[in-house]
Amino acid sequence: MPLIPACLTTLAKRDALRVAIPGVLLSVCLVGNALAHTVGATVHTDAGTLQGAATSAGTRFLGVPFAAPPVGELRWRAPQPVAAWSGVRPAQAASPTCMQDPRIPPAGIGNNSEDCLYLNVHVPPQASMAKPLPVMVWVHGGAFINGAGSQYDGGTLAREAGVVVVTVNYRLGIFGALALESLAAEDKAANYALQDQQAALRWVQRNIAGFGGDASRVTLFGESAGGTSVCNQLLSPTAKGLFHRAIIQSGTCPSVQPTRAQALAVGNAYAEKLGCAAGPGQLACLRGQSAATALLASPAIDAANAASLAQFSPHVDGVVLPEQARQAFRHGRFHRMPVLLGNNADEGTLFIALAFELKRGSPMTEAEFKAMVQGSGGDASPVAALASAIVLNAYSPSRYGSPNLSAAALLGDSLFACPTQALARTLSDHVPTYAYEFQEKDTPAFVSDPFMPWGAFHAAELPFVFGTRIVTTIPSPDPREVSTPAQRALSAQMMAYWGRFAATGQPGVPGQKAWPRFNRLLQATQTLKSQGIGTELLGATYLRHQCLLWDTVAVLGTGL
């Protein structure tokens, strides 16, 4: 008797006995099983049904709401549940982006709105309900003042790395970071940007299985402010259990965290500017402002000033963030999971270009460089003066070739490379830690800069991680993309590393040279460049970025 496929019903089995072609029946059965387990373009969530769209990289669902619009009485409140809908909701167009300051590049990304708490899901062709894939949740950068999840097409990364990619929006600028005593009296939990990210992660936990994702293998990854967000989520008690691995790209939280007093000072000045005096009616006054008025009353950002860049960063509120990051990490009070973190070799060039060359058409002068160093900490003490003199000597324009290159190296080392190495040392005492430095010097820049080569600038790794163009408006609308065969090979390798880490908690790819864990002794840092991937050991990265100097400055507490 021919074998009858088990998937057939009793009636089908009876009919099948009359047909002597069991191989065909088996084929039909296999196809039926595959279709039953494949993720389609229609997915059911806990709020309703979504209709996505097929792409060359799989299926994508755009503009998926994960929280109620934070408008009116919900402005400066914790994200609330999204309202359910009936029927099928189209998920084929990007949502509005969160409110972002038009005075600060990149401006003009999408249509800005307070109604912006949406995410995007990119599902690769190999996704199935039977074998869930790792999930990677992306938190975009932009100094907590600009950017959007829709800038990043996660389709190529999803397909090449075998993961489900989710990109999210979160409230920006004053909408995501306002601190006031009146708000604390209403609800001690502040840091609305971090709360939005957590709401998106809760949505993932509830719904990602329907997209072929494994809710027990969620990697939270982000760059710049997104990396700082990931760093802070490691410290947040309210993020417990929402993700299981972390990737921090060019953004550590201990180095850019305002104190509660500093956050309150920004908030009080903001409320005063809007004429909303402290007292019973303050919050009604603030929530009654139009979105545009509320946005433009917020303080501007100076791209070359560390304190200015940090003013909308997450701060200690006692609930979402119970204590300062440096102290929490030092004492091991963070969620234990594998961490991959790194920086780019020339992080500072973008910031100096934005603050000087692209803004006014001329490079920084030596006098401006000196003023930047001497005035960066706001400290006039003799110790600060000594520290300034040491820094000026270490970053002399004669050594680096020009004041703008000196300033770029100083910013890159002090705000990115050295804090990354310091955090890697601390993390490695407790959890599996892997470090990298992106060193692709010939990465396509945003624009041609006649005054300074950008090298491996801040955000240069993004097209390599996503394997596709990243939409940006700094300062032109032309997207960046990797261009040479060697760069495309590097991109493929980086997607493999990131995907392997999401799947297993370690980035090494089978059959290739191992990516060693970082520890205090060897300080192994993987170097990523198209000329060849290698490993720096014994503090080579630390020394090249003058981290001994910056560790000393930190001990002196000068604020430089």
TrEMBL record:
Its EC number is 3.1.1.-. Pfam families: COesterase. Residues 42-521 form the Carboxylesterase type B domain. Coiled coil: none annotated. Keywords: Hydrolase. It comes from the Bacteria. GO terms for molecular function: carboxylic ester hydrolase activity. Belongs to the type-B carboxylesterase/lipase family. This is Carboxylic ester hydrolase. It comes from Aquabacterium soli.
